[in-house]
Structures are given as structure tokens and as C-alpha cells.
């Protein structure tokens, strides 16, 4: 996990080479009532692409969350890259089969 000072340095280095970091902005309130200071400021969040990137990120996280909660991705029962990859693919197929009725209804 990155320390806040490391994140600031990494994002500054990315901006120096003209790369926009699209990570989630951490500006929540702590248990003691203080506001967190995020390394991502308005230069990044003001663009439309940042919002699109965050919504795509949420969709991706949803797939992995489903696989951990309902599928078999929480703890693998297989050994070897090929078997684990096959199990992962089976989870993705199952998730897509569950999504088909919602996609057809839309």
C-alpha cells in the first residue's frame, strides 16, 4: 500500500511525463472528523474522462466482487496456472450468463 507521500511523488512523476493518473480520489472524512487530503486534485477530476474511467472501474470491480462472493474466486481449489485460469474463466462465463437477462431487457 502506498503511503501518502509516495503517492504524491508518483503522481507528480506521472504528470511530468504527461500521463494522467486515474485512481480514486480519497477525500472522505476520518473517524476523528478530519478531511483526508487526496493526491488527486481538481486537475484530474475536472475532466469528463475521469468520471468515465471511474465508472468503468466500478463495473470491473463488480465482476471481481461477484466472483469472490458467489463464484469460486475467493480461495482457489486448484494447483497450476492452467487450472486456475480455467476456473477464473468459468467464473467469468457464469457472471455473463447471469447478466444476459438484464442485457436483453435493456
Features:
106 residues; mainly alpha; 2 domains
In short:
The protein is mainly α.
Radius of gyration: 19 Å
User: In terms of structural class, how would the helical and strand content be classed?
Assistant: mainly alpha
Question: Number of folding domains?
Answer: 2
Q: Describe the main β-sheet briefly.
A: none
Mean pLDDT: 83
Helix content: 55-70%
Number of discrete helical segments: 4
User: What is the terminal separation in angstroms?
Assistant: 39 Å
**DSSP strand count:** 0
> What is the overall shape?
extended
What percentage of amino acids are in beta strands? under 5%
Question: Are there runs of 5+ residues with pLDDT below 50, and where?
Answer: none
Detail the topology: elements first, then pairings.
Blueprint: H1 4-16, H2 42-45, H3 48-69, H4 81-105
Amino acid at each position: 500500500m502506498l503511503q501518502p507521500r509516495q503517492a504524491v511523488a508518483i503522481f507528480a512523476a506521472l504528470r511530468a511525463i504527461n500521463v494522467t493518473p486515474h485512481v480514486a480520489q480519497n477525500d472522505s472524512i476520518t473517524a476523528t472528523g478530519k478531511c483526508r487530503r487526496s493526491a488527486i486534485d481538481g486537475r484530474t477530476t475536472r475532466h469528463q474522462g475521469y468520471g468515465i474511467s471511474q465508472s468503468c472501474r466500478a463495473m470491473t470491480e463488480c465482476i471481481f466482487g461477484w466472483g469472490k462472493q458467489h463464484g469460486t474466486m475467493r480461495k482457489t481449489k486448484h494447483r497450476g496456472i492452467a487450472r486456475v485460469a480455467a476456473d477464473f474463466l468459468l467464473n467469468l462465463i457464469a457472471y455473463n450468463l447471469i447478466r444476459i437477462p438484464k442485457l436483453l431487457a435493456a
